[in-house]
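Q: what does this look like with coenzyme A bound?
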Amino acid sequence: MTIRIAGIGTSLPEKIITNNDLAKSIDTSDEWINERTGIRRRHVGGVTSRMAIESGRVAMADAGVSPDDIDLLILSTTTPDQRFPATSAVVQSGLELSCGAFDVNAVCAGFLYGYVTAYGLMSIPGGPSTVLLCGSDSLASLTDWTDRSTAILFGDGAGSVILERHEQGDLLGWDLGADGNLQSILYCDHGDFIQMEGREVFKKAVRAVVGSVDKALSNAGLTADDIDVFLPHQANIRIIEAIANRVGIPMEKTHNVIADTGNTSSASIPLAMAKAQANGVLQPGAVVCMTGFGGGMTWGTAVVRW
Ligand code: COA
């Protein structure tokens, strides 16, 4: 059995905060933020369930499937609407689905945890044939907009994909990892804002992701040269450059949205995927490598044949 991504959908809230807007209230500048992160603007004001529903609707239309065709909904989010029910229940209702639904929280690596989980469930006998996998996060709501060390980085957004059984496409190799000893460098307590040791996160993320991509490629029996499209988590363009450089992937093979979105956590990889689709590089047979990292720390990689 093989599984392919049959449709992609995204959603970004209307309200935009530019670097120049930020520089009016905190001690920073467009030049500093752009040089250190590659971010120019971010969307804010999103509600996790609403963005997920909107992106899910677009993905279903892109794949040509109806709500009745969806056998399972997996929502990756770190910013659920409520403590419970799981936000996936709200999304299931909003999209008029009648299937099972659950949330995954692996912070910014959540989309990849969701992807591998979906693939595993689809592979068991009698498992779902068509899965809606959605990444939606509203990190702007967890951001202290007076703290220049974090306010420059985060934004809201959602991206969804439809996974379906098909003779074309497959998951060739994957890796999921975590190191809970690194909780203290990136976390958010209930009722508080995101706390982060930026430099430490930068270093640990590069190391973890490079190792993860190497493992997934080795599981797939491939090398970096085989990758046609590279979709890394959109946290910082310098992190993306460091990873691409160490793995040995030319930057031309990456498709980035970070300048316009900032770090949208679970949504960043499907948003980058939509950009790659718009750029016309997601052709049948292309080898696509998705990789990400997040608080925990967590990380993950999936190498797929499109
Ligand atoms: N505007 C202007 N100056 C700033 C600033 C800002 N927003 N934030 C920090 N500075 C200053 C610092 O005070 C420091 O000044 P000093 O040299 O006088 O002490 C200087 O810029 C360098 O700070 P530093 O923290 O070393 O910068 P950096 O190059 O590491 O960039 C981050 C900071 C946060 C952009 C970078 O570390 C990063 O992106 N880390 C990863 C974060 C991440 O991806 N988190 C999410 C993971 S899912």
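The longest helix spans residues 198-220. Residues 244 and 250 are 7 Å apart (CA to CA).
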